[in-house]
Design goal:
13-stranded mixed beta sheet, alpha+beta, Phage tail protein beta-alpha-beta fold, three-stranded mixed beta sheet, Jelly Rolls
Length: 334
Amino acid sequence: MENKLLDYFDNTLSLQEQEEVEAWIDSSKENREVARQLYMLHYVGQTLEVMQRVDSREALRRVNARIASSRRRVIWSRISSVAAMLFIPVVAVALYALCNKPVAAEEVVQSVEMYTTSGMVSCVTLPDGSKVWLNSNSYLKYPVRFGQERCVELEGEGYFDVAKDEAHKFVVRTNTMTVEVLGTEFNVDAYARRGRDVRTTLVEGSINMTFEGSDKREHMVALRPGQRVSIDPVSHDWNIRKVNTSATASWKEGRIVFDKTPLVEALRMIENRFNVEFVVKNPNFYEHNFTGMFTDQRLDVILEHFKRSSNMRFRTIDRYGEGNVKGYEVIEIY
């Protein structure tokens, strides 16, 4: 079951196998605890792989064996805290090791992979001097040195401040779209969540967007500052509209800013920051707009603001089975 759990976390199982794993997880409290432990160890193992290309499956097997022989029940919150504390030094050492390693002329250029945990915002400087801020639960992959094309891969949300270089375009690839620039600032929100569109917001400069439309043809659009393109990853429907860029990018400074923000947009910002999902039971709530600024506040403090300014109430549910080892807490608004 250990190997199946790892494949489950990597989303490589068939639908039937996924259901079998979920049934096993839900069958006992002990199984849920084992799944939680493996999920976090797998998460940390992916980051360590940047340094040593460790076989994460073998590493997890050995660590899990030690846990079983000494103390099987490790408190989930403690594992999460340790993983979060380890993240920054692990990435720092990985970057140093990779950037200072001698590279033969024929050697394939290595890549750096960065992960951020829930509630964490991280900033990295790329080999060309460009800066990227990663929001919670996001993933960024880039080479230790750029070639003719400066290309990175993103899952989650990232804010890019791209160093100008007219000779080498900068490319951001997600599962849904490709962004090409020479030097500019923009925000990409590309979390892999069901029912969520993928967005790119231009703060300054100019960018070209390439994606497949609902007509199955490739589309290219150019954005102007203050514009956002949204793409449905399933239907491929898309639209462009004007937005408040200061509120869009506030997360990179540890702030959440609402400026007459509709509920659906406010909830999306909170979901990205705290790795939660909201289920709105009363559609009338979508008529509400919210104004306010939160800096490093806890989730419960922000939700209290919603409660006081409207008739909303909140309760935690779990649509994915008790334990929810794959990711996020589900909060119902009623």
